[in-house]
Specification:
Order of helices and strands: HHHHEEEEHEHEHEHH
Bound molecules: guanosine-5'-triphosphate, zinc ion
Catalytic activity: GTP + H2O = 7,8-dihydroneopterin 3'-triphosphate + formate + H(+)
Number of helices: 9
Helix content: 40-55%
CATH architecture of the largest domain: 2-Layer Sandwich
Strand content: 15-25%
Number of strands: 7
Largest sheet: 5 strands, mixed
Structural class: alpha+beta
Family: Belongs to the GTP cyclohydrolase I family.
Subunit structure: Toroid-shaped homodecamer, composed of two pentamers of five dimers. Homopolymer.
Radius of gyration: 20 Å
Protein name: GTP cyclohydrolase 1
CATH superfamily of the largest domain: GTP cyclohydrolase I, C-terminal domain/NADPH-dependent 7-cyano-7-deazaguanine reductase, N-terminal domain
Number of domains: 2
CATH class of the largest domain: Alpha Beta
Domain GTP cyclohydrolase I: 24-201
Distance between the termini: 48 Å
């Protein structure tokens, strides 16, 4: 197996990482590449700020979404219907251009024997969104984490988002939403459940 292939198979936390100084130096290189003077007053601290900002944007790599969903509750007095968090603000970055993806996520599940604290559904969205993503992968990862952690009767995740790599550069189309969804279990198998999900989120 080639060296590249072995590297590609390593888990993210096992991959050798450059240090902070190297990261800031890379930003200085980019500034110089674009014709700027990285040492002028307004830019001298920019590499530090840039790396700080992207550590925040990409902080999801340090999170374990299944662990976020590990605290569950069984005492729901027979509650037996859909749980939906709709209009969760979504902020991510596309893996192709490292440009913002801004939109909303709707996350629903039909519990089997346990429910999760509802804030945790939004935390799972953030844990995956704060990574370099394609919208399809992001949608699927959120659904899979809920499936894995809660073993519910079904999961429905829908994301509607604008990609700034499409609105501010390249093809430059504004007010265009990319819509993706993953439906599992009853939401996939039962058209009435699928339709209820759409009605609840106002589609
Ligand atoms: N499927 C998918 N594509 C995405 C996503 N975010 C960005 N893209 C697309 O990724 C593609 C990358 O295409 P390339 O031809 O390699 O890159 P490019 O030359 O910058 O393409 P243009 O954006 O068309 O200028 C573009 O079509 C983007 O619109 C996403 O979340 N999912
Ligand atoms: Zn992009």
């Amino acid at each position: 197996m080639s060296v590249e292939k072995v590297t590609a198979l390593k888990a993210p936390d096992e991959r050798p990482r450059p240090g902070r100084q190297e990261a800031e130096e890379a930003v200085r290189t980019l500034l110089a590449y674009f014709g700027e003077d990285p040492l002028r007053e307004g830019l001298v601290d920019t590499p530090r700020r840039f790396v700080d900002a992207y550590e925040e944007f990409l902080s999801g790599y340090a999170e374990d979404p299944v662990a976020i969903l590990s605290r569950t509750f069984e005492e729901v007095d027979g509650y037996n219907d859909i749980v939906l968090m709709k209009n969760i603000r979504l902020e991510s970055h596309c893996e192709h251009h490292i440009q913002p993806i801004i939109g909303v996520a709707h996350v629903a599940y039909l519990p089997s024997d346990r429910v999760v604290g509802i804030s945790k559904l939004a935390r799972v969205v953030d844990a995956y969104a704060r990574r370099l993503q394609s919208q399809e992968t992001l949608t699927s990862q959120i659904a899979t984490a809920i499936e894995t952690a809660l073993a519910p009767r079904g999961v429905a995740v829908r994301i509607e988002a604008e990609h700034q790599c499409i609105s501010t550069r390249g093809v430059r189309k504004t007010d265009v939403a990319c819509v993706t969804q993953t439906l599992t279990g009853v939401f996939h198998a039962d058209p009435q459940m699928e339709a209820r999900f759409y009605r609840l989120i106002g589609v």
